[in-house]
Amino acid sequence: MNPRKSCEICKTYYYAKNLEGNIFMASFPTNKERCKLWVKIVGNKALAELPLIQLKRKLICQNHFTPHDFNHNKNRLKRTSFPSQNLTRPPLDDTLLESFPKPFTKITENEMKLNQYKKKCEQIVQLVQHDHNYVSQDGGVLGHGN
């Protein structure tokens, strides 16, 4: 199966190894100031919390650029281009971008898997407690049969 990625604005899907659809997908810029502008324009608060290295993997499809934004071959964006068409959210306030970009903290793949496992376990415990009324009125957990 080909990995699929989606546009951060309209969620249009693009299959990374299937160019038959001819949908142009642009990565967020690696330049800090240009990337900050893109994040602001896109209006997604979650993107403002990511370090540049993770934003580089996020994509915007061609539907959010004007024809003038592309080079003469229509296969690359000009350096001065930014998403301006068919935007779905208002731009982010500058106060949300004061600490942009977030620092990259490297965690190992095992640490990431462990964190995901812990979150899943917590969700399961909460569901079981709620579904079986194991939570007392004061929030404490009751034993089975109490």
TrEMBL record:
<keyword id="KW-0238">DNA-binding</keyword>
<dbReference type="Pfam" id="PF05485">
    <property type="entry name" value="THAP"/>
</dbReference>
<feature type="domain" description="THAP-type">
    <location>
        <begin position="1"/>
        <end position="86"/>
    </location>
</feature>
<keyword id="KW-0863">Zinc-finger</keyword>
<keyword id="KW-0862">Zinc</keyword>
<dbReference type="InterPro" id="IPR006612">
    <property type="entry name" value="THAP_Znf"/>
</dbReference>
<dbReference type="InterPro" id="IPR038441">
    <property type="entry name" value="THAP_Znf_sf"/>
</dbReference>
<protein>
    <recommendedName>
        <fullName>THAP-type domain-containing protein</fullName>
    </recommendedName>
</protein>
<keyword id="KW-0479">Metal-binding</keyword>
